[in-house]
Design a protein that fits this description.
Mos1_HTH; alpha/beta; about 350 residues; FB224; 12-stranded mixed beta sheet
Length: about 350
């Protein structure tokens, strides 16, 4: 048996096997798998098999070809730098982070690309930290070891989502994140104003366009929530949305006085008086452009009674109201669309 195995793995015998595989005209990798089953998995490397298979496939069945006279095969590192950069620009940042460990030349090529992720979601829970990259993968890290991700040269992200379980201290997450990033949008879920502010300040206000904040506790527990709106990030963002574990009352609207475009939810018990109060508050905002107020109840009757509009008959669920801001030539254009819940849109116009 040992003699038979030895004969089967001698070079002429191996080439004969490859010749028969090539003559069957199967795909090359299927041929290599068949070859390995016959002679053993480690008998010949795939590159060597590929060389002989293609010679035999193209009608050159010469077993004694001297390969030492052939040109040295080119590798990726033999490509011009500009071409290597063109190839690597199609990789995502995590793929590049692996590739940069190949050698110094590859590291220099990879580091010439900005390592910008489209979206990163980081969650801090009782069991540890987890993060999700570009909606593709979730990685769990009980010890919070995200340092390698943040140390990728040129690391940045367009859309950053940060979630902190209210039963876990998120100081470790705050300490772990880079000092500053330039996301276009940031989405923060936390239970104290202090921690929301700390996470919000990671985003540079110059680049930030959209902010979403989710209060995991009631505003009474959160504390001095108005301090969040003092941050430059809130003042310069194009859009701000605030959600809460408990619905925010109309007086909370005062916090948006320096925000151009915002969205929030009002409680089910919002009355005609509350709607008029909302109109009065918004009318004092100097830089205001637009807002959306959601109420998870049909409030078309309250809206009409608050603003003196006619309650529509039949199936109509949309009502409009135009209000001139006192001592101004500007107006607030209200519209309410109702189904099982109400969406009130307010736009400032001239």
């Amino acid at each position: 048996m040992e003699q038979s195995t030895s004969i089967k793995t001698e070079e002429p015998c191996l080439k004969t096997h490859i010749l028969f595989e090539a003559l069957e005209k199967k795909p090359i990798f299927a041929s290599y798998q068949s070859f390995c089953k016959k002679v053993g998995q480690d008998t010949m490397s795939y590159p060597d098999f590929e060389f002989w298979w293609y010679r035999f496939y193209h009608g050159q069945p010469v077993f004694d070809h001297d390969r030492s006279m052939d040109p040295v095969p080119k590798t990726l590192m033999d490509l011009p730098v500009l071409l290597m950069r063109k190839v690597t620009e199609n990789f995502d940042p995590m793929e590049r982070s692996v590739l940069r460990r190949v050698n110094r030349a590859m590291k220099d090529v990879v580091d010439s690309h900005p390592a910008v992720f489209e979206k990163i979601e980081i969650k801090s829970r009782l069991g540890g930290l987890s993060y999700r990259l570009n909606n593709k993968r979730t990685v769990y890290s009980r010890n919070g070891k995200l340092e390698k991700l943040f140390k990728i040269p040129g690391f940045n992200v367009n859309h950053l989502r940060l979630y902190n379980d209210p039963y876990r201290s998120e100081d470790d997450l705050i300490d772990l994140l880079p000092g500053s990033l330039t996301p276009k949008s940031i989405d923060i879920s936390a239970c104290t104003a202090y921690k929301i502010i700390k996470l919000l300040l990671i985003a540079k206000p110059k680049h930030l366009e959209s902010i979403h904040i989710d209060l995991l506790e009631s505003p009474q527990v959160v504390g001095p929530f108005s301090r969040i709106f003092e941050a430059q990030q809130m003042k310069q963002a194009k859009f701000v949305e605030v959600e809460s574990f408990e619905r925010l009352d109309v007086e909370f609207l005062k916090n948006f006085q320096q925000v151009r475009n915002f969205k929030m939810e009002l409680p089910r018990y919002t009355s005609e008086r509350d709607l008029r109060r909302a109109r009065d508050i918004i009318s004092t905002f100097k830089g205001f452009e637009k807002c959306e107020l959601q109420i998870f109840d049909n409030k078309i009757r309250e809206f009409c009674e608050a603003f003196g509009e006619v309650i529509p008959d039949g199936p109509s669920t949309t009502v409009y109201h135009r209000y001139q801001i006192p001592e101004s030539n500007e107006y607030l254009e209200f519209s309410i669309e109702c189904d099982s819940y109400s969406i009130i849109t307010v736009i400032k116009s001239r």
